[in-house]
Amino acid sequence: MEMTQSVQALSALANESRLAVFRALVQRGPEGLKPGELVARCGIPDYTLSFHLAHLLRAGLVTRRREGRTLIYAAQFSTVNALIGYLMENCCAGRTPPGSSECGDGCGVPSKSDPLKA
Question: What is the pLDDT of residue 20?
Fold first, then answer.
């Protein structure tokens, strides 16, 4: 991931409503949620939800698919993993101790091979 993409993703998440939508989609997993379900879960007015989803789509943080006449939104985990990797790539000067899956003593940063491990 490049700096421009990272800034766009972080900017999209730097809003309470968009962050709430994104977290709801992450919790749901690849199945995703319908817009009405997002409104109910996040308490966001339906007339602003499409605006927030558009920001998240442009940043590549969510995907949209059609099932019949319904749109389903889901978190784009590959983008999230790339963003986490970009943010953490220089942790501990880019070194991972031999035989360790984590960076440094006690820093607790997951290795690049599993950026969502916690």
Answer: 97
Angle at 43 between CA 81 and CA 61, to 5 degrees: 20
* Stretch among 3-17, 62-76, 80-94, 97-111 having the lowest mean pLDDT: 97-111
Q: Cα(73)–Cα(39) distance, rounded to whole angstroms?
A: 12
Instruction: Give me the helices (H) in the chain, please.
Output: 3-13, 16-28, 35-42, 46-58, 77-88
How does residue 118 score in pLDDT terms, banded at 50, 70 and 90?
very low
CA nearest neighbour of 111 among 96, 93, 98, 99 = 96
Res 5: pLDDT: 93
Are 59 and 87 spatial neighbours (Cβ–Cβ below 8 Å)?
no
User: Which three-class secondary structure state does DSSP give residue 76?
Assistant: coil
Amino acid of residue 29 = G
